[in-house]
Known about the structure:
Radius of gyration: 20 Å
Largest sheet: 10 strands, parallel
Number of strands: 12
Number of domains: 1
Number of helices: 13
Distance between the termini: 27 Å
Shape: globular
CATH topology: TIM Barrel
CATH architecture: Alpha-Beta Barrel
Order of helices and strands: HEEEHEEHEHEHHHEEHEHEHEHHH
Amino acid sequence: MKHEAFHYPALEDVKAESKKLNAFLLLAERASALFQALPLGSKEAANRIAFQPMEGTDGTEEGAPGELTVRRYHRFAKAGPGLIWFEAVATLPQARASAHQLWLTERNVDQYKKLLDDIRELSLKENGYAPLIVMQATNSGRYSKPHGYPEPLIAYHCPPLEDAPLSEDRIVTDEELKRFEEAYAHTAALCQQAGFDGMDVKCCHRYLACELLSAYTRPGPYGGSYENRTRFLKNCYRAAQSEVKGSSFFLSSRLNVYDGFAYPYGFGVKEGGGLQPDLREPIQLIKELKQAFDIPLINVTMGNPYKNPHVNRPYDHGNYVPDEHPLEGVGRMMWGVSQIQHAVPDLPVLGSAFSYLRQYAGNLAAGMVEGGHCAMAGFGRLAFADPNFIHELRENGTVNAKNACVTCGGCAVLLRQGIPAGCVVRDREEYKL
């Protein structure tokens, strides 16, 4: 089904189209709801805007931040989000998604500390406050490419993601999973030493922890039942918590609540339900994480950027034409975020997928926050394209269309190729396809 590219000259046009599509889009006229402080456990975010973890593939071979990494976070700092959800940092060398993915070690921890000091100093100077900074700790699993070519670590064979079945020896053993869990302890200690406010045990977009949530067909203690499928994630939390000192450093997750694949290959669906979301298990898991690990917020997302990217980042241009209108995809994400927030009203939920709406992204974010459907709005692609959209929102109540993300997917193409990733439209001096 072919859809027209983004063509909404006024906010009322977006409202009319979303109503016609029955899409769950709550659009506020003003952005003021985004500029209220948000308590997060013992800490506080200065506003309700977060920058999502956008990988730049521009670290050094040793895993330290590279020149472009530093440039990106300096730009983010000056922009003034209340929270910077720092991009994926590998827990082990074999778990890196590229030869230049960040990897935190004893040898480079001081370089991370220097970057965090810079971020806080720049934001204080520019905005009068420092952002909270959460590091995303990852095991890339199926998408591991530590030497620049695929070396997948899979939980089970997943036909929707394998054109041909991968070799049996790519399925990680129970013993390997235990070692992967233990790695989160060391990473958490280094994360706290570097000065991060908290650590994300990454569980989204079908990387290893996320894939295990749908391991219905895997035998043994990590597959089959809900208890088994959530074992790895919870054990990673326990390992991380065992090395954290004091009470101010917190754990959280960017969590897939819906994969977009039918049973038995997707989380957030039920047997016989096709692609229809069923959020009972995701809600149960989030409640358990809150109770067991006192998480102060949860970052909600969906889909797989490698296979069904329209689910988690709706677009007009891509390598396939989705069978739904992009606004329907945005609406499904907003619906899912709202469902989670209402199921756990005392846990702030960070929503995703606002960037598709370009100059109206702030209106959607404000509408979600104002209506109590989420506590915070996360921006990824728009932060790549124009991190200063926050100043525009604060001053003018809208995003400048001339600077907005156009959802071309160019940043994702660079990332998949292992090339330093950024906005190929708005930041052409640094990033070219």
